[in-house]
Design brief:
Length: about 350
C-alpha cells in the first residue's frame, strides 16, 4: 500500500496540489494550487498557453471532523489568443471543485441542494448550522431550480389530482410510472389543461388514472391511441370500499349465522334482553339522516342542504350515499370508543 497524501484524504480525485494545512478561527484552511493541464477559453474554446496572472480563490468545502473546511486555492489566469474572441483573459477551473463566480465547491453545493430539496428553507438552515455548513435559508432556496420537463411524455404516464388547499384549490400531478418520479405539475384538474399538455408532449402509450371523467375526456381528445388503465391504488381502494360496504349491509345476516352456529346452552328462566336508551349520537344521526333525505326528496342540492343545515358537503354526501343502519353502527362504535377512553 503506497503513501497517502493530504490531497487523497481531503480532496480525493481532484487535480490540485496541497501546500499547507492550518487551523484558523474560521476552521481548517487548506492552501492548494491547481495543477491541471492547459485550460480552454469558455467562449471560443481556444487553449490558453500564456499566463496572464495568478490569484487566490477562497472556497467553502464540506466540513471535516466537525469543523468548517476552507480551500485557499491559487489559480492561473490565461490570455485568449484568438483575436476574434471578445474575451481577453479567462481563469482556469478545477473539475469537481470550482465553478465560475461561485464561492462554494461543487461537492458542497451538491450537499446543500440535497438538503434544500428534502427539508426546505428553515429546517435546512438548522441542519446546516449543525453540520457546520455556511448556508442560510435564502441561499438554500435559491439552489432549488425547477427540473426540466421532457419534450416527450413518458411511455407509462400516471395522472392524479392533489390539493394545493384541501376543499379550495386542486391541481394535477403527472408521474413517470416506470421511473417513479414526478414529470410535471398542472395548476388545475381541468380536462383542457391536461389535454393541452398531452398535445405538447406526445409519446404516451399507457395512462394510469383514477375514474375522474375530466381526465378520461382529455385522453380521448388529445391521446386517443393511448391505453387507459386504473392504477393499483385506486383499484385496491375501490375494492376495499366495496367489501366494507357489503359487509355492513349484511352484518345482521352474519350475526344471525354466528348465533345459529354457536348453539348456546338452554337457559332456565331467560331474562329479556336489556333495552338500552339511545345515545345522543344515535338520536342526532337519525334526525340528521331524516332531514337530509327529506330535503333531497324536495329536490334540494347538496350545497343548498349543506348551507341550510350548517354541514359540510362531504357530510351531506355521506348521509345521502350510506344507509341508516351503517351510520348508526359507525356512531355506536365511535361512542363505545369514547366511553372506553374515559
Amino acid at each position: 500500500m503506497g503513501a497517502v497524501g493530504v490531497e487523497d484524504v481531503l480532496l480525493p480525485g481532484i487535480d490540485v496540489h496541497v501546500t499547507a494545512v492550518r487551523v484558523a478561527a474560521e476552521g481548517v484552511v487548506v492552501e492548494a494550487s491547481a495543477c491541471g493541464g492547459t485550460p480552454s477559453c469558455p467562449d471560443c474554446g481556444c487553449p490558453g498557453r500564456r499566463i496572464h496572472s495568478r490569484y487566490t480563490r477562497r472556497l467553502a468545502e464540506r466540513p471535516v471532523v466537525g469543523r468548517r473546511l476552507v480551500i485557499s486555492l491559487q489559480v492561473r489566469r490565461f490570455f485568449c489568443e484568438r483575436r476574434t474572441c471578445n474575451r481577453r483573459t479567462f481563469a482556469e477551473q478545477v473539475p469537481d471543485l470550482t465553478e465560475r463566480q461561485r464561492r462554494h465547491s461543487v461537492g458542497l453545493r451538491r450537499w446543500m441542494r440535497t438538503i434544500a430539496t428534502f427539508l426546505g428553507g428553515r429546517p435546512g438552515e438548522r441542519l446546516c448550522r449543525t453540520l457546520q455548513l455556511p448556508a442560510g435559508r435564502t441561499h438554500l432556496l435559491g439552489l432549488l431550480t425547477a427540473p426540466a420537463v421532457p419534450e416527450q411524455a413518458p411511455r407509462v404516464l400516471g395522472v392524479d389530482e392533489f390539493a394545493f388547499r384541501k376543499g379550495w384549490r386542486y391541481g394535477t400531478v403527472l408521474v413517470d410510472v416506470e421511473a417513479a418520479h414526478v414529470v410535471d405539475v398542472l395548476p388545475d384538474r381541468d380536462a383542457v389543461t391536461f389535454a393541452d399538455w398531452l398535445r405538447e408532449h406526445p409519446g404516451t402509450e399507457i395512462i394510469c388514472r383514477d375514474r375522474a371523467s375530466a381526465y378520461s375526456s382529455a385522453v380521448r381528445d388529445a391521446a386517443p391511441d393511448a391505453q387507459e388503465v386504473a392504477d393499483r391504488w385506486h383499484l385496491l381502494a375501490n375494492l376495499s370500499s366495496a367489501v366494507e360496504k357489503t359487509c355492513h349491509q349484511h352484518r345482521h345476516c352474519l350475526r344471525k349465522k354466528a348465533e345459529a352456529d354457536a348453539q348456546p346452552r338452554p337457559i332456565i328462566n331467560p331474562l329479556p334482553p336489556p333495552t338500552l336508551p339511545p345515545t345522543k349520537i344515535a338520536v342526532r344521526t337519525r334526525d340528521r339522516y331524516a332531514d337530509i333525505h327529506r330535503l333531497l326528496a324536495e329536490g334540494r342540492s347538496v350545497s343548498a342542504i349543506a348551507r341550510l343545515l350548517h354541514l359540510d358537503r362531504k357530510t351531506v354526501r355521506r348521509f345521502r350515499d350510506t344507509d341508516l343502519d351503517q351510520l348508526l353502527s359507525s356512531s355506536d362504535l365511535s361512542q363505545r370508543f369514547v366511553v372506553s377512553r374515559v
